[in-house]
Amino acid sequence: MTFPPELLQRLSIAQRVTVLTGAGVSAESGVPTFRDAQTGLWAKFKPEELATPTAFRREPRLVWEWYAWRRELVAKAKPNPAHIALVEWEKRVPAFTLITQNVDDLHRRAGSRNVIELHGNITRTKCFDENVVVKSWPETAEIPPRCPRCGGFLRPDVVWFGEAMPEEETSRAFAASAQCDVFLSIGTSAIVHPAASLPFHALEHGATVIEINPDPTPLTDEANYVLTGAAGVILPELVRALA
Ligand code: OAD
Description:
Strand order of the largest sheet: 3-2-1-6-7-8
Largest sheet: 6 strands, parallel
Bound molecules: 2'-O-acetyl adenosine-5-diphosphoribose
Distance between the termini: 15 Å
Order of helices and strands: HEHHHHHHEHEEEHEHEEH
Shape: elongated
Helix content: 25-40%
Radius of gyration: 19 Å
Number of strands: 8
Number of helices: 11
Mean pLDDT: 97
Strand content: 15-25%
Low-confidence stretches: none
């Protein structure tokens, strides 16, 4: 694959690189995306029936079991060349920030260090009532299990529709988008805010914005460069070309 020489030039001198990833970077690890017509989770399940606090209050067992299925699927998945390429790139620049909307923990498992998890992490569990992470609880046949402190239901530590984003992570993500030389939006449909406004925030602050996606998104017409294709193919070649 060849890249525009001025893009390689720009990337090779970039000292501050900020990346936003979405479900597309885990697609090649076999983890379903959300909005892909055939394979997307939202093509098979209704988000409002599974990924909202109301849904959990109405059907705690169903929601817990759906996330248990996703947790198992993610545990079996492996980081793919896209995740690995981002680990490589992080080692080569002084300021590399990886903002992810993914809850699959694959960036951390791949070895990425400076990861901002905007939507939480499916491998972490928290108390629904106290909103604090719970690391262990007594073995029980009850589903969902209960918080050992308050007896309330446990839930996955992920952001549901209608819930606020984690404040600290969100402000760090906006700061990293405002202060970077280059911003890459990779494998995201760029429609869920506030994450989707990060690349525009970077553009407003003078960053060069690159999109990597097989399909067009609302960002495509505004990005400085659009690399059309799979992240697992493009990213390793891009990082190799920068070496
Ligand atoms: P989506 O499923 O909305 O979008 C996935 C994007 O990845 C699409 O634009 C695909 O074209 C692209 N894609 C598919 N395969 C790819 C590949 N191999 N390489 C690169 N790109 C590929 O997933 P997200 O944009 O991550 O929020 O969705 C954002 C948020 O909406 C999620 O974090 C989740 C969802 O509701 C919450 O759960 C709060």
